[in-house]
Structures are given as C-alpha cells and as structure tokens.
Amino acid sequence: MKRSKHSVMAIFLGAVLLAAPVMASMSAPAPAASMSSEQAAGVGLEKQEREINRRKAAEARKEIVARVNGAEITMYDLLGMMNRVAGAFYRDVQEPSEALTREIRQQALDRLIFEELAVKEAEKQGIKPKAERTREVIASLRSSYGSEEGFAGYLADIGLTEEQLRERIDRGQLLEGITGREVYQKQASDPEAVEKLYREYKEAGKLRKAENYQIKEILVMAGQDEQATRATAERLQTQLSGNKHDFSKLVLDGTFIVRRLQVNKDKHPAIFAAMQGMEIGEFSGVVQDGATFHIFEVLARDPARDLTEEEARTMLEDRLAPAFQEKRRAEWMGDLRRDAKVEILLDK
C-alpha cells in the first residue's frame, strides 16, 4: 500500500524527536586515529544522517498546516503531536494504515488547535508562568547533558533556540494552569451514574480493596526503537537523581509523562514485582513493562481489606472522573472554538 506523505514524515520525525536527546547526551566519539575504518565510516554516516534529519525538521517548520486566530501551526508541530497521540493511544500499532494515519492526524490537529486557544485563554485570565520554575527546568536540562556542547547539540536536534525552549516551557505552564482551572475545577459529577455503579459492584462482591501501592512515576512511552526508549528512560533517571528527585524539574518533551498511580498485582504485575522489598520514599531504577519504561517513587502501601461505603463511592467517583473530565474538556473546547477563526491548510 502506498504511504501518504504525512504517514511517512510522522514516523520519520518521531524517530528524530525520540532519539535526539539520547544522541545529544552521548560522549564525543574517539579520535579517528583510534578507530577502525568501519567505525569511522559509521560515525561519518551517523553525522550525515543527523544533518539530514535536522534539515527535514527545518523544512517541516516552514510548512504551515493551520492558523488559529492568526497564530500559525506548522507541520513540525503537527508531526510531534501525532507521535504523542500515537504513543499514548496506538502504542501497539507498528505500521499505521492510511485511514489510521488520517485519524491520528486529525486528533493531533484538534489537540494543537485546542492548546493554542487554551494558552490564549490563560493569558486572557491573567495566568502567568513562573520564571523561577522555567529557569530551574533549563538549568536541570543543561546539567543533564554535562556540557554546553551537549546542551547545544540537544537544542540543534530538536530544532529550537534556548529562548524558544523557554517559551515552550512557559507555554506548558500556561496550559497546565488553565486546564486545571477550566477542566479539573469545573468537572461535573453524576450521582446517578455513581449509584448505579455502586450497586453493580456491591452485588458482584467487588467492593474489596486489594493490596496496592501508591507511587509517583515517570512513564516513558513506547518509541520506534526499544533501545532508544530505554536510553531515554536511563537519561531521565540520571537527571532525576541529579536534581534531588524533583519531578517538577523534568522537561515534558512528549516522550514521557509524570503521574501518580495506584499499583496492584493484577493490573501492574511488572511494577508490583519490582517494588517488592522497597521502602516508602524509595526510588526505583528503570523498570520495563512491555514496551514502556517506568521510574517511580513509592509513596504509600495499603493492605488488602473491605472498603467502607464512603471509600467505595469515592473510588467509583474517581473511576468515573476521566469521563467527566473529557466531557468538560469537550464542552470547553467547543466554547473556545465557537468564536475562533480557524484555517485548516492541510490537504484532505
């Protein structure tokens, strides 16, 4: 089957974006005199490939795919978001079909439009990024690469200047702030849905709490190459250790997320097994679970027991919360787009 331009570029740039931080953090190659001819040829080919990748990324930045109230969204932005969407929701798909690629592309474009409108709404509501947090993130990232040369290589690989990186971090703070205000603080509950689920669980004898752990983790999402994904996880572990295990200083670059998670033996067997013998407050190494990698801190341990009614209802409300949040997000997105001028410049 013939691949579309956007399918091929999405996979291509995805590999570039995922590999860039890893390659930028590698030590400099040994002098040519100490290399075999095959090693020297390999280094030369790698450099040539990286330059080609950088040129492709630069070309993608020049192609405008949409405008939102005059603000431009580039092909580079779109392909980066496509890979985030694919990594989050289609991680088991190795070769996306044309139809699936179009579906991922549309989801990614909708997300970029939403983010642009949301950031402008944050500015309108007076939300401001914290300069100190941005400085800490930049300093931590620079330190993780060991030298100015390594940090400069990282910026070159992702196609950003340091100032543009700062702007992205600031933008991320605005998006986080406005989403918390407009989605998480305004999500509605549904007592009838909670009551129905409570009765179903009670009749089925499911209102018992299994032994579980509370953790805070870095989830490194599956990439094109398992070795590169593991290398990204190991780099993040080194960076986390270097900044005194402060999760907030990690740069969210689309290859990982930070989240809190309840872990039990049935739902997360690999993580559950890895944490046996760990103490509260202890940090793990890199733990592989299928195609993803995890680095976590053990926050608490809860023994198995029957739930009280209050605990049961709270648990079920939490279980239904993502649906309520998505409903509120969709409503808010509709409100934001209602009066927005959105131009789509992509071919169908």
Tell me the layout of helices and strands.
Blueprint: H1 5-24, H2 37-62, E1 64-68, E2 71-74, H3 75-89, H4 98-124, H5 131-144, H6 148-158, H7 162-184, H8 191-203, E3 208-209, E4 212-220, H9 226-242, E5 256-264, H10 269-274, E6 287-289, E7 292-302, E8 305-306, H11 309-338, E9 342-344
Antiparallel strand pairs: 1-2, 1-9, 3-8, 4-5, 4-7, 6-7
Provide a descriptive summary of the structure in words:
This protein is of the alpha+beta class. The protein contains eleven helices and nine strands. The protein has helices at residues 5-24, 37-62, 75-89, 98-124, 131-144, 148-158, 162-184, 191-203, 226-242, 269-274, 309-338, and strands at residues 64-68, 71-74, 208-209, 212-220, 256-264, 287-289, 292-302, 305-306, 342-344. The strands form three sheets. It has a four-stranded antiparallel beta sheet with strand order 5-4-7-6.
User: For the terminal residues, how far apart are their CA atoms?
Assistant: 18 Å
Count of DSSP-assigned helices: 11
- What overall form do the CA principal axes indicate? globular
Unreliably modeled segments: 1-33
Largest sheet report: 4 strands, antiparallel
Mean pLDDT: 84
Residues in β-strands, percent: 5-15%
CATH superfamily of the largest domain: Porin chaperone SurA, peptide-binding domain
- What does the radius of gyration come to? 22 Å
* CATH first level of the largest domain: Mainly Alpha
Whole-number tally of structural domains: 2
Strand order of the largest sheet: 5-4-7-6
Helix content: 55-70%
Helix and strand sequence: HHEEHHHHHHEEHEHEEEHE
Structural class: alpha+beta
Care to count the β-strands?
Answer: 9
Q: What's the CATH topology name of the largest domain?
A: Triger factor/SurA peptide-binding fold
CATH-derived architecture of the largest domain:
Orthogonal Bundle
